[in-house]
Amino acid sequence: MNAPRLLVLQPSQSDPLAKLGDWLEAEGIELDLVPLKDMPAPANLDGYQGVVCLGGEMGALDDLDHPWLADARRLLSSAVSKRLPTLAICLGAQLLAAATGGQVRKGPKGPEVGVLLVAKRDAAATDPLFADLPFTPDVLQFHNDEVHLLPPGAEHLAASPKYPNQAFRVGESAYGLQFHIETTPEIVLNWASKDPDSASCARAHHFDQEFLEEAHRDFEEVWQPFVGRFAKLVRGELLPALGSGTRLPLV
Hints:
This protein is of the alpha/beta class. It has a single domain (5-235), classed as Class I glutamine amidotransferase (GATase) domain (Rossmann fold, 3-Layer(aba) Sandwich). The chain has helices at 18-26, 69-81, 91-99, 185-194, 196-199, 209-235; strands at residues 5-10, 30-35, 50-53, 86-89, 103-106, 112-117, 119-120, 138-143, 145-149, 155-159, 167-170, 174-177. Keywords: Glutamine amidotransferase, Transferase.
């Protein structure tokens, strides 16, 4: 039996798969990485069992400077319509929202940056990926834009005090995470050096190497099992969520 194959859309070299790639490969998932700046996006999702879309420093609607963003939105919309398991992170989540009828804007409360908590919403209790997460898991935040309005019919899964739409699901199995779970301390320090204005919004010690290493150990404890559940969704071993509350039998 062939390994399940994921299309991985990478908008920026500064936000690689990193730990997310390690966790997915450990689950036996084959990853087809497309750096959108350097390679054309595929015309369709034939041959893929799921999609991952990573983050980047650009805005979700900055098509004038980054015309390939339209391809990313098109593929994310297609993934939802085909009911393919999808995991979209930070900019990816904003692209997913924009592609399915939500609204993205510059965050009116300024950048959200640092090691912070998000809180699960009521709908997370019955979600196949979110149900087993702690109520207030640690995450890595580094964004200036926000998902202002969720797509119609989306399930709201997690919030933060600053920006409420931190995690959501569109359809059965397309997940948007405004925060990061894939990073390493080195990646975060690189972002801080490239965007010192945003980094200055975090508490100073949040960019200490020792603090980041400890935070990433906590991330791994919580989010690697989450990614394991996503891999089960991709492999067809976990039933997707259905808005009606009913479940379809596995074929």
